[in-house]
Write a structure and sequence with these properties.
Two copies of one chain form a homodimer. By secondary structure, chain A is α/β, with parallel strands linked by helices. The first copy, chain A, contains 18 helices and 31 strands. In chain A, a hairpin with a 2-residue loop joins strand 15 and strand 16. Chains A and B meet through helix 1, strand 3, helix 7, helix 8 and helix 9 of A and helix 1, strand 3, helix 7, helix 8 and helix 9 of B.
C-alpha cells in the first residue's frame, strides 16, 4: 500500500461520511472474524479499502440481499504448478472462488529454471488481480540423487529476499539436514532468521521436533494425525490443515482446533489439481469441507482468512473491517460457501463463477524457456540387457505415492528386457532434460497397466525430467519425441495410432491456456490411457511421482534406480 | 538474535539430547499459552533459548518443585517516566516481578529533550537484562498551548525508525488531527504505514472510529467501557486492557475477552507509579488482578505474554516453547502470580523479589542534560494585580485529572492577588524551562489545600515545565529555586522551614536512584505535604497534571490560562 496524503485524506473523509464512498454494500450478513459473530451491516469501500460500517452514501450500491460477506480467502501454502496453470490462468481460475491471496512455494519451477523461474513468477504476478506472495524453495535440488535444472544456494535465495512479496523460506523439507546440521541447511536457516521459515516435518516428534523448532521454523503442513498436530501446536508451531488434491488431512486433524489453538491454525491446499479446481473450486471447497466435518462456520472461514494473514504478517488482510483491503465474497449460505459475487480491492471481479475482470487487459509476462536438452532417442538407447538374478520392479498402487520394491523374473527378447503387458511390467524411461548428451535411465514398473501405447510427461517431481512408460519401445519413443517437440507437457500415443499432447510451455510444468481447456485436454488424455488399459485414475500423476526419490520404497531418477530406504542407487538386477 | 552456525548447531544438537544443555528446569507445571493447558514437564535451555521439553541432562538443574512456569511478562504499553526511574533502575525494579520486555513510549522525555531523549533511552537500555522496545512519541509537543523542549516532525521520527528496537509510532492521541487530516498528522501516518501504529482514542465510536482505523492505526488503550471496547475489537482493533496507577479499566472491560477476541487483547499498565511498583509489582499484579476479577488464569497470563508479543511481532517471545527466548518466572500458585524465581535469557536474575543480576556490572549510560533555563525569580515576578470581575480558579479534585472552572472573588493585598489559605485559593506558577528569559505564568487553584509552604515539580505533563503552588510567595520562590538548583525534581518547603527535594536528574523526570530510595523520599515529601495541610493523596501528582491542556476544564500552561472546552487562552479575570 502506497498512499499519498490526498488518498489518505479522502479515505478519512469518506469514512466519516463527509463524501460519498466508491461502493457501499448494503444489507449483508458480515462474517466478523474478530468477534466471531455474524453482523448485519452496510459497509463502504473507498480507494480499494473498507472504510467502515454504517449508513454510507456511495457512487455504487451493491445490494447484498442478506447474503453473507466473508473476507477474501488466503491460501497459506500452495504450489501453483500443481494446477498446471500459468500464474495468470491460475488467477483467472481461483478468483471466482473467492480467493484473494496465495502464499506460493515455486519449488517446481525453481527445480527446472532456478532463479529465472522464481523471477518469472514474481514478474508474471506483478499486476494480477490476486495477491501472490512467495516463500523461496528451500531444497533445490530436492536430493542429490537426480539431475535438476538448478541448484539454489542460501545466498542465491537471500539475494531476492528484499522483494516485497517474498516472505521467507518455504517448507524446509530437508529435516534430516536440519537435525544433522548440514552446512547448506544451516546457511539457509541463518540467513532467513528474520524472515518467515515454513516447515515440512512429517511425523517428526519429541526431541527431533524440539530441535527442528529451535531453529525458528514456525509452521508445518505435513501433520497426518491428531497426536502429531497436537504436539506441534502445543510447542508453538502453526499448523496448516491441509486438504489438497493429493493429501487430505482435515478430517484427521480438525479436532486440534479449539478456543486456544485456533490462532495458530489455518486451512491450506498445498496442491490443487486442475480437475478439482474446475469442479470444486479452491479455498471455498476446503472451508466448506471443514464445516461439513463439523467445524464452526465462522471459525472455518477465519482459518482461511485472518489466521493466514496474521501468520505471514500480511497487513490489512484477512478481515472486513475499517482499514482492510476490500477483498471479499458474498455467498447465500455459510455452508456451503458459494461465492456468487467476488470483490478484489473493492471491484467486482467475478459473478456466479464467471470472471468479470477483463483477462485480456492483464499484463502478460514473457514466458521463460522450457529446457529440453534431450536428443531424439532410438530403440538402441532403450535396450536393456538382462542380467543374472531378479529384476527390481517399482510397484505402483492407486491412491498412494508410496511404491513397493518388487522382484520379478524379466521378460526378454534376444537377451534384452522388454515391456510385458501380460504381467504389467512396463519399461519406464527418464531423460535428463538439462544436460545435453546425457544417457536415459531405464527401469521397470508394475501397476501402470497400459496394454498398448505409452505416456510421457515433463511433470516429474522434483526435478521434472522427461519420463515415459509404455507397452513397447516404439510407443515410448513416439511419446518422448512428441513431448520433446512440444517443449514440455503430457503426451499419450501408440505406435499404430496418433499422439495426443497437453502442451505445458511454461517450463514444461504449466499451460498458458484457460483451466477448462486444460482440464478438457487432460481428461481426454486420461480417457485414452484408460482405453489403453490403465486401471489408474490418473496414470500421468503416478508417472510424475515415479522419479521422486524421497518417498519410499523404490524410484527411478535420471541417474538410476533408487532404493529410498537406503537413499542409494541399486542395480536393476538383484543377485539371487 | 544473531546466531552463527556454531551456535545454531549447538542448539540443534542440545535439543536432540546429544549434549548437555546449559540449564534444565525439572518438574514444573508449564503454562502453555498455545494449548491453554498446564503441562507437567521438564524443559531445557541452551544459549539463552528454550530448546524443548523432555528428559534432558544439563550443566545446571533447577528444581521447580512443582511450581508453575510462565513466559516472561511483556508490558505492551508503558511510559517508563511514570515510575520516576531511569531505565536501569526501572529494569532493576521490574525484573523481580517477572517482566522480561516492555514496549515503551518515551513521550515525556521526548517533550523535554526531543530526539536526544529518545536516543538516551535507546542507549541506556542497550544491554540491560530486560528487552526494551519503543514506539516513537507521535505528539511532541502535545499541544500548541504550551512550550515544550522539542518539536518532533514526521521526518525526525522516521529518521530513527530503522533502529531494531523501534516498532513504530506510539499512541496517536491527536485523534482530532487524524479526523481533520492535519498535514503533520498525515505525514506521520504515511511515513509509518509499514510500521506499528498505536492508537489513543478515548470514546471514539461509529464513523469517527472507522476513519481513525482506516488510517491503519491498530490498537487502543483508552477504552473505559465494555461497549466501547466491544466496538473497537469487532472493528479489528487490538484492545490494551489498562490497569495502571492512574486509570484502572480492567474491571469494566474484562468481559470483552472471549474465545474469539482474546488474540486481539492484552494487559498493559500505561503508567506505574513508584509506590505501586514497590508494593504490588508490575505485570504480575495486573495479571493477578485479572484472575481475581474472574479471568481464566491461563488466559490472563497469555494476555501478558503471547498476545503482546504477537501484536508487536516480537519474534521468539511470549511463550515457553522450543526456539523461544528463555524468559520465564516460577510461581507457587497461578493466582496470585508470585514470581519467586525469575529467569532472563535462561539466567536467574531475581529470587524472592531480590535482584540477583549484578546491577553494578550493567553499562551506565551518559545522563542527558536536564534543561533548566529558569532565572531566579523575585516576589515581583509573581505579582498579579487584581482586575475587575471574578478570578478564574482551577478546581482540583481527588481521584480525577479533570479540573473544574471556578469563579471566585480574589483575595488581594495592596491590589495584588495573594494565596488565600482559608479559602484554599493558592497561587500556582509555571516557568518555561526551555526558553531563557521567559516570563512565568501565574494562576490560582483550589483543592491543593496547603495551609503553609509550597511544592514544586518538573514533572508537569506534557511539556514538563517547572511548576509550583504555595501558600505564600516566599515559599513558592524557595521551592522553585530548590528545584532549579537540583536540575529538576520535586520539592516541598516552607519559608520558615527547610526544603526537602526528590532530585530527578534525568531530564527532570527520572531518578537514577533505586526504587526503594525514590519511594522513601517521595513518601517523605507526601507526608510533609499532608502536614502542610493538603488533603490530597498525592498533591505532586495533582500539580503535575495542572498544566496538561488536553484534559478539561481549566488548566494553566507556561503560556497562560487555558479553557480546554474552547482550546484557547482566557484571561485570569472574567468580566462580571
Amino acid at each position: 500500500m502506497n498512499w499519498d496524503s490526498e488518498t489518505l485524506s479522502r479515505v478519512i473523509r469518506t469514512a466519516q461520511g463527509q463524501c460519498p464512498a466508491d461502493v457501499c454494500v448494503r444489507g449483508c450478513r458480515l462474517v466478523n472474524v474478530f468477534s466471531g459473530k455474524i453482523e448485519t451491516v452496510d459497509f463502504a469501500v473507498q480507494d480499494g479499502f473498507i472504510v467502515g460500517w454504517g449508513d454510507y452514501s456511495a457512487e455504487q450500491t451493491i445490494d447484498a440481499n442478506g447474503m453473507y460477506a466473508c473476507p477474501g480467502f488466503i491460501d497459506g501454502h500452495i504450489h501453483i504448478e500443481s494446477t498446471l496453470l500459468s500464474p495468470a490462468q491460475f488467477c483467472a481460475a481461483v478468483l471466482p472462488h473467492g480467493t484473494s491471496a496465495v502464499v506460493a512455494d515455486p519449488h517446481e519451477i525453481a527445480n527446472v529454471l532456478g532463479m529465472e523461474g522464481i523471477r518469472f513468477f514474481l514478474e508474471a504476478t506483478e499486476k494480477l488481480p490476486l495477491d501472490f506472495y512467495f516463500n523461496l524453495p528451500s531444497c533445490v535440488p530436492a536430493t542429490p540423487l537426480e539431475t535438476s535444472g538448478a541448484r539454489l544456494s542460501a545466498s542465491d535465495l537471500f539475494s531476492i529476499l528484499p522483494h516485497p512479496r517474498i516472505l521467507g523460506l518455504a517448507e524446509m523439507m530437508n529435516f534430516p539436514g536440519v537435525l544433522n546440521c548440514f552446512p547448506d541447511v544451516m546457511d539457509k536457516l541463518l540467513l532467513f532468521q528474520k524472515a518467515n521459515l515454513d516447515g515440512h516435518a512429517p511425523q517428526l516428534a519429541g526431541l527431533g521436533l524440539n530441535a527442528y523448532l529451535a531453529t525458528g521454523i514456525s509452521s508445518d503442513h505435513e501433520c497426518t494425525s491428531f497426536a502429531e498436530a497436537r504436539e506441534k501446536l502445543s510447542k508453538g508451531m502453526t499448523i496448516m490443515l491441509r486438504e489438497g488434491s493429493q493429501s487430505k488431512d482435515l478430517a484427521a486433524l480438525m479436532a486440534v482446533v479449539d478456543d486456544y489453538s485456533w490462532p495458530n491454525a489455518m486451512l491450506v491446499s498445498d496442491d490443487r489439481h486442475p480437475d478439482d479446481l474446475l469442479r470444486e473450486g479452491h479455498m471455498n471447497a476446503i472451508v466448506t469441507r471443514a464445516m461439513q466435518l463439523g467445524m464452526d462456520p465462522v471459525r472455518a472461514l477465519t482459518l482461511a482468512t485472518l489466521t493466514p494473514a496474521r501468520h505471514f504478517g500480511l497487513a490489512r488482510r484477512g478481515a472486513i473491517a475499517p482499514g482492510y483491503i476490500a477483498d471479499f465474497s458474498l455467498s447465500p449460505s455459510l455452508n456451503p460457501w458459494t461465492p456468487v459475487r467476488v470483490f478484489k480491492n473493492g471491484v467486482e471481479v467475478a459473478r456466479e463463477g464467471e470472471l468479470l475482470s477483463d483477462q485480456s487487459s492483464w499484463p502478460s509476462a514473457h514466458l521463460p524457456s522450457s529446457p529440453m536438452n534431450v536428443a531424439r532417442l532410438s530403440v538402441e538407447d532403450l535396450a536393456t540387457p538382462a542380467e543374472n538374478g531378479l529384476l527390481r520392479v517399482i510397484g505402483v498402487r492407486e491412491g498412494t505415492l508410496l511404491t513397493r520394491k518388487l522382484l520379478e523374473q524379466p521378460t526378454t527378447i534376444d537377451g534384452a528386457i522388454v515391456s510385458d503387458t501380460k504381467r504389467d511390467i512396463l519399461k519406464v524411461v527418464i531423460c535428463n532434460r538439462y544436460t545435453a548428451g546425457a544417457r536415459p535411465a531405464v527401469g521397470f514398473v508394475n501397476g501402470i497397466g497400459l496394454a498398448v501405447g505409452a505416456i510421457a510427461t515433463t511433470v516429474a517431481h522434483d526435478s521434472h525430467n522427461l519420463i515415459a512408460v509404455g507397452a513397447d519401445d516404439q510407443s515410448i519413443l513416439q511419446v518422448l519425441d512428441a513431448v520433446r517437440h512440444t517443449g514440455g507437457g503430457l503426451a499419450i500415443g501408440a505406435a499404430q495410432d496418433g499422439i495426443e499432447v497437453l502442451p505445458l510451455p511454461v517450463a514444461g510444468l504449466m499451460s498458458d491456456r484457460p483451466l477448462a481447456e486444460v482440464v478438457e485436454r487432460l481428461e481426454s488424455l486420461k480417457a485414452k490411457a484408460k482405453a489403453f488399459g490403465s486401471p489408474l485414475h490418473n496414470p500421468f500423476m503416478a508417472l510424475s511421482f515415479l522419479a521422486l526419490p524421497v518417498i519410499p520404497e523404490l524410484k527411478l531418477t535420471d541417474l538410476g534406480l533408487v532404493d529410498v530406504s537406503t537413499f542409494s542407487f541399486v542395480p536393476l538386477f538383484q543377485a539371487e
